[in-house]
Every structure is written in C-alpha cells, then in structure tokens.
Amino acid sequence: MASVANPPLLRLVARGDREIVMTREFDAPRQLVFDAWTKPELVERWFGRLEGWTTKAEVDLRVGGTYRFSMQDAKGTKIVLRGEYREIERPSRFVTAEAFEGFSETGWRPEDATVTTTVFTERDGRTTWTATSRYPSKEIRNAVLNDPNMQTGMNAGFIAMDAVLRELK
Length: 169
Hints:
alpha+beta, Alpha-D-Glucose-1,6-Bisphosphate, Chain A, domain 4
C-alpha cells in the first residue's frame, strides 16, 4: 500500500498508433472514485490542482450530457476540457468524447475528439482506474504521450483526489 508521502503514480502505455492506456490505483471503493470523476463539487477539489490553479466543473451526467472542466491560474491562463458522455454504467464505467478547447484550429468538433473509455474496477475496497484514450491521429497521441506537463498535472490532481477520497471514506 502506498503512503501519503509516496503515492501511487499514474502509468501510461501507448497501444497501437492512436491509443494511450492510463492506470492508477486509489485506496477507496469504486463508487467514491466514480463520484470524484462525476460530481462537480468533488471534481473542483482535485482536477487540475497544480499550485495556484483553480477549477470550475460543470457536469450533466447522462448519455448525451456534457461536462466542462475549466482550470485557471493566478495569471489568468485558462485551460478548458469539455466532452460528452456517450455511455454510462454507474459506477463501473463511462465513455466520453472530449477535447481541450483552443487546441484545434477548427474548434471543438466530435470528429476531432478523443474517445476515452474509463473503467473503475474494485478489489478489496481499492479501485483501479483505467482510461483508454483513442486520439484522432497518431501525431496527436504522440504529442500527448511526450508532454511532461500532462503526466505531472495528472499526478498532482490524483494526489489531491487521494486526499478527497480519504475524507469521503
């Protein structure tokens, strides 16, 4: 079991030409981890939690519903992740089409979206989160895979999620 001082790290693995499979274990039941991903008041406490950043989350958790996670630093730099729920099986999985606003010359379009299947698997009160993301192209997948800020940001967020989950247990 990982300690607070030595949290488990996010694992990223490339699969095929366009996919990344990410996994991370959480010391909490899957219903709580699912809630941490889908309840705005919880998302705001962990998502995009780099030092000095704040997050505003909007979630309409239903098939065809949308979400928008807007992160902003003290200087006003803003990063927005938005998406649409394509499938939902509470509390075991959801499938989304998502994109970061402003990172496409064409704006957000479903055909430009990354399709992510997120699965929550519980064993002995611990949950493994697995997200398989299929990117629009090999080039976009490789850019994400090689961006050190993505993994650093996700790890910081997941450490914050660990603290939220401890409070909820």
